[in-house]
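Field: COMPLEX_INPUT
Field: COMPONENT_COUNT = two
Field: RESIDUE_TOTAL = 816
Field: MODE = joint
Values follow.
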Amino acid sequence: MKKLAAMIAAAATLCAYAVDPIDKSIDISAREDGLNTSSLSMVRSLMRSHAPECQFNDNVDFSAWQGRVAEEMTRLMRHPEAPAAEPRLVASAQRPGYRIERWETFPLPDAVVGVFVLIPDGVDADHPARGAALCIPGFGQTKELLAGEAERNYMLEASRPEGEIKQASMARFFAEQGLVAVAVDNVSAGELSDNGRFDYVHTARHLLELGWSWLGLTSWQDRVVLDWMKTLPEVPADRIIVSGFSLGTEPLMVLGVTDPSIYAFVYNDFLCRTRERILSLTAPDDNGYRQFPNNIDHLIPGFLAKFDFPDLVAAMAPRPVICTEGGLDRDFRLIQRAYARAGAPADAFEYHHYAMFEADSTRSVDLEVVPAGIDKWEYFRLCNVDPPHHYFKTEHVRPWLDRILPKR
Amino acid sequence: MKKLAAMIAAAATLCAYAVDPIDKSIDISAREDGLNTSSLSMVRSLMRSHAPECQFNDNVDFSAWQGRVAEEMTRLMRHPEAPAAEPRLVASAQRPGYRIERWETFPLPDAVVGVFVLIPDGVDADHPARGAALCIPGFGQTKELLAGEAERNYMLEASRPEGEIKQASMARFFAEQGLVAVAVDNVSAGELSDNGRFDYVHTARHLLELGWSWLGLTSWQDRVVLDWMKTLPEVPADRIIVSGFSLGTEPLMVLGVTDPSIYAFVYNDFLCRTRERILSLTAPDDNGYRQFPNNIDHLIPGFLAKFDFPDLVAAMAPRPVICTEGGLDRDFRLIQRAYARAGAPADAFEYHHYAMFEADSTRSVDLEVVPAGIDKWEYFRLCNVDPPHHYFKTEHVRPWLDRILPKR
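Field: COMPLEX_OUTPUT
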């Protein structure tokens, strides 16, 4: 067996010549006729020449465009037609200021997906909450983290480690603000992991083989929870917020453009155009390999042929959205124009840059195109991203919440 | 920047708990109700319960089934509707026994893809060849290797390194047998590589984002070449063979089921069911991670929901096919039944096991289901695969060729 392994390793060296240095100019042909000879350049040329079909622009009929975005997103996500079975209450525990419940949902025939519901003291069927928040975690995060519970405390059997409650406990934050907060897991994470391994990529690959996607399944699980939230007596169905951290902004956008009944959105990540990001990151890494912005758990085949993230946020108009971690002013201007077209008040779309890019003088305010040939660090800098300060920004969300959902 | 890199590395540890040992029984629920709690198990359950829609079975109306396979394959491959521009002759050189020509093809607007044509001495417009062969390389291979030319000798400027001609020179073999042989590159390899890097995965990811696939583009490039071959005066259009080595069998199957004018096929790899292979390889590797049979250059979203490789070979009936590197007898029996249903003579489908599995006593002749919980080495053994002896099997192809294409 060792001999075979060595042979396979030797064969793998077949997959590259003695390699020339890679420069940054992959899109410049060495031929007089300007044609591309590398497959990568051919494919990048295809990507450049195919703008997303449902991009927002100032000439669209807003309502027709919004309908088309919803339709294409519905098609891409391939949610099952069969309704999910009714969720079941399994456990509950009292915490200081709120009760936490474990419910089990059944998004697929052989599957059970647990969620936590945080109900502020004093809230019940006769005294519904101020609002509700569906809280979707980021990469590597769990519903336990969001709810301020100990990791792996799926059944609420352990007591909560009070000293360890993190700034990331988004659901606990909303409960403290008087909202019913529901914390979910992303596909492959936490209780949904493979025996402790958060195998996003491995699960995604299986899903892609079936013609589905990581985001398709994740957003389906979240939709099952969201639809059920609307039926809870403690929840005012017309005051539900979807709040996504980092990776969690992706299912947020799916729910946002396909469910007009959602009241408002907390988009806690920087905002960017993924297609442009792919076309920009051509500088080789330390090993001489070109970079790709993310793994295949972000891959939804054909997605970028339809729209990009700023289009999706624009399609949430006129409902309140807060973007808490900046991005390019160009994209925020686009969203503001969309909100104006939708007849939204000026403050319906609110955004904040990272603190270090807050002053106009610290940003490329007028940058319209991110250049190719850069690496991810340069990309972050150009797009006003400060990765070490990527966290759930209660300092922006709290006052926004009091504005869009006044206390009773 | 180093501080940032360290921080990101630290954050990456977030993506798994202190990890429990992974056992082989990922599909066995720990719950009394038998429901899956890991996303991976949920998704595997979906994959198990969804047999490919166009699987061959003994009750199909063969011709209707074959038509449906062609239709679904056409839909999955998403070949461009615009015809490619006419190929152009760019260079030629004489070799012992044949002339080699470089032609340039134009499968996409900004792209040029070179191919080699090997024309046996004595063959011309007035004396067409015995037949022709479109030769598709394996992973890490190039058209130069297949033609017996020096690597990077794209323009036929260098002389051929006679001492270095490899057993892999499939196109040269066919030319020596009196056929016009055409050697192509796979997407991202050789002349189509990124400055010497054979970046199959990176190119594939770009294509998938656009809703296309590595195999979609590769088979499109090959189709352009095949359709052009039919117009060459030296080529009898009704005697074209498609010959694929390893990875090259994938475009072979695409062309095979969608172009009934192809005369015959050399399938030089072991034959397997990819869906079963995915479901079987659940044993963790040395690092505790589960395996997947291949990279995303093999991913065609939704492909496995339609059919698997044995179905595709079955759909080539009644045309001659030779499988040279074995697989499961179960799958060969299925193909034989399909050929019988198509009214093909008994010898139209020919197959050979690897030498070490040739005797029935060395194989699991009756194995009907490959079990889950195994690793790739056990999979190879169960499926009669002898990886160190994976090469182009002229010893089987030569006599087969003389049978299906008698010398004039």
